[in-house]
Amino acid sequence: MTTVDSPSDTRPDPLGVLVRDLQQLRLDAGAVSYGEIAQRIVARRMSEGASEAASRVARSTVYDAFQPGRRRLNPGLVREIVLALGLDAAQADEWHERCVLTRQAAPSPTVAPAAPAPDVHPDDAAATPPAPLVPPQALRRALIAVLLVACLGLNLFGTTLVLRLEIPLFLDTIGTALAAFALGPWHGVAVGVATGLFGMVSSTPETVVFSAVSVVAALLWGYGLRRYARTPLRFLALAGTVAVACSVVAAPLNLALYGGASTNASSAFLPVTTSLGLIASVFAVNLGASLVDKGLTAVLALVAARWLAPLQLTGPPPALLRTPTPGGRVSA
Predict the structure, then answer these.
(1) Which residue windows are transmembrane per the record (predicted)?
(2) Average pLDDT over residues 135-143
(3) Does the predicted model carry a pTM greater than 0.85?
């Protein structure tokens, strides 16, 4: 017996077309795994102020959204998926609207249900906060380049200020700290190394070796802010750690190049009877200046980084850079 499909069976399935296009978008973005998409959604939700519990989304939830034969699809989840795949907010809104229109255009069932079924997946029960105004990718890259140059300028300005006013500090890593806070540790390393290379050309060649101090500071600031310093008290502890680490690196370099004398700290060392005592005295003098210098540097850089945090130039900002809301939550 030959079966004849009803006219409704031959109509194109708008939801099926949408799911097929969504899968093609995932492939065009580099065949991003469903687990990676879920992680990106969680990171975006947390950056917008949602708690860790409310931000969770299961990999299976994302996987289901890409499967053909679906009878319903959450427009909010579709919007988050396309954002995770690299589209901007305007394009994501278009996908959201398309999903809503697809639901409206879907053929009515033979027997109308008493009430429309809820379109909220259990894993997506928490409402998603409005997305921040993140600049497009090309603009972000340009802003990062401008910020790196500005950070280099901050370092050079601080160095010049110390030399002109004979301040017993360093002030040559404010830009390094800002880059590490706002962009990440390796951006801070780039600014620190660039500062040393510029100093080698503009002043004395041996100053480039002090780039090692900036590298240590940038790595500790960048990783420390993201993995440890989630509270003001921990941030102060991080600043002290950076000061000690920089002194450990700088003291031997200072001793080898300048015999322990420094234009940034007093050369009146502690009583010295051995070479080891000389190293300890140089370290002590350097540490005294470094504690004040790195504390001031960290605070100034943190204030500037918090101002830049809403741009999310390299991803969701660390916890300490997010602005508290009246409800006690934090947002970028």
Answers:
(1) 142-165, 177-201, 207-223, 235-256, 268-289
(2) 84
(3) no
